[in-house]
Known about the structure:
Strand order of the largest sheet of chain A: 20-19-14-11-12-13-21
Mean pLDDT of chain B: 82
Helix content of chain A: 10-25%
CATH class of the largest domain in chain A: Alpha Beta
Strand content of chain A: 25-35%
Shape of chain B: elongated
Order of helices and strands of chain B: HHHHHHHHHHHH
Structural class of chain B: mainly alpha
Oligomer: heterodimer
Distance between the termini of chain B: 40 Å
Largest sheet of chain B: none
Order of helices and strands of chain A: EEEHEEEHHHHEHEHEEHHEEEEEEEEEEE
Amino acid sequence: MQPQSLNIASIGKGFGADDVLKGIDLSIRPGEFLSLVGMSGCGKSTLLRIIAGLETADRGTVSIGSRDVTDVDPSDRNLAMVFQSYALYPHMTVRDNIATPLRMRRLSVWSRLPLIGRMIANAEMLREIDASVKEAADVLQIGHLLDRRPAQLSGGQRQRVALARALVRSPSAFLMDEPLSNLDAKLRAHMRGELTNLHSRLGATFIYVTHDQIEAMTMSDRIALMSEGRIEQLGTPDELYRRPSTLTVARFIGTPSINLLPVELDASGEIVLFGQKLGITARNAWPGPATLGIRAEDVFPAADGIEASLVRTETQGADRFVTFNLTCDPSISIVMRQRVGDDLGADADGNVRLAFSKEGVHLFGSDEKRRDITVLEQVPA
Amino acid sequence: MARRGLFFVAPAVLLMLAIYIIPMVVLAVFSVTDYQLGALSTSFIGLDNFRKAFSDPVFLRALWNTVLYALIVIPAGVVLALGVALLVYNRKRSRGFWEIAYFLPVTATLVAMATVFQFLLHPSLGPVNAAIFLAGLTAIPKDLHEAVRLDGAKNPIDRFLTVTLPMLGPTMMFVIVTTSISAFKVFETVAVLTKGRSGSEVLLFALYLEGFEYSNTGYAAALTLIFLAIVLVLSIGQTVHMDRKVHY
């Protein structure tokens, strides 16, 4: 099966009085790895379930390739889904779990019956199914587990069985609902790599729901960041990191979280931070309050910077995250990322002066939307 | 310490002894004698009562009738109860009402229970089984129903055979064991309807006739032991066999 595109047009869905999805438009390219990411309750899982057909949208359409599947039963959409709970059939062996999608599609009702089914079924077909199951199991390196029951497997092994069950029948697209969230941190990082490999190996369309921005950032071709039933921004991981279109996106993407500072725009559009002009102007912006976002790696100690005091240092191997409180407003903290050997620039009392690279800042107006900026030429003092 | 422990278990042990153990021992003693109710003397006759039972056409007919009754009532009871439970479970809006209608008599006070006891515990019509199945259905993870739909199960029968029925295994075991035991205890139906005429005796009715109508206490005791053995074998056999198959 060729990888298929998916088209989602003005999908809306409400539960009771709440609108969970407020008109979602999204085109997923054939073979793309697209992540739906957002806080819990943003509607990403509901959207995935509508794509799968497990939930009905109040309005809008879902198409796979050129086929409108809005009113098609999930069993006829040829999509495979990996559930957060894996949803393995506990009464079946791993082999039977993986074979179920094939049996449902290729065998008649009678030959699927327990016991007598195997006698009626076409022997050639059974051999084919067996071979496909082995192949899928080999891809995920679970060939030796085929005769076990799910209860006898570890979390990581169950995860692999769920993936094998999904890929055994080459579906139009894979839907994944937080598949890694039940694994421990180390295994999760490992499975991220394996999923990426699997995606490039199969060349299939993946739609991946997660609340973990690291998963989305590391695996996706594109990310749709959702918030309150809308797609806040759709773009590559790099675009979301370097040009977040709203404050919500800026807050959500990146570890540690982006530093946010309250600033004012003066009449000429120049950014003023605690009464100090920064030499950056906003284009197409009006005077008033705004928010300045600065990534931790754009912060560095400098003699002419803002005064701050050291709060704590978290070392992460080669890098460290250093947290400061601003002296002029201790409720505002700033995180700086630097190499472990680098100079903190702090005096004996832990006081430092911090500056940031002007090209790296993100400006958001009072409507929380991104504003373009121009860095002014340094005026010689 | 040990003595204090004994003190705490004593009430339960005494009750067990008085209600179950001692009567069973007395029963066992009666079963190897030719004692008749009111008789002044009695003598030990070994296993003669048991030998007599298995050559007694009335007893053998009663045994067969009981087995036949159980074979009809168990599948019918299970299927009816499961059917009702599935119907209630699949209601979207009226499910709350039906759940209450079926659960209320099961969970109501003892006094209220007593009046509907007969109906409730009826092996094939009793809503107890339906309520148990309903609880079993509710316990099946929703994910599994969804997974099987995506795996290509188009119709409800496919979904039922692939997920619902196997996942109901433990519930099914419980219902079958309790239903078969109550089926083997059938008595009133026969006592009221036919009084065992035209060859319609069942185990408990034959036993009742021997013990209380004909006063053959010794023989009736032997029949009772046979009945107890059957029920015991049934429960143990089903539990051991099905335990292996239904628990994952």
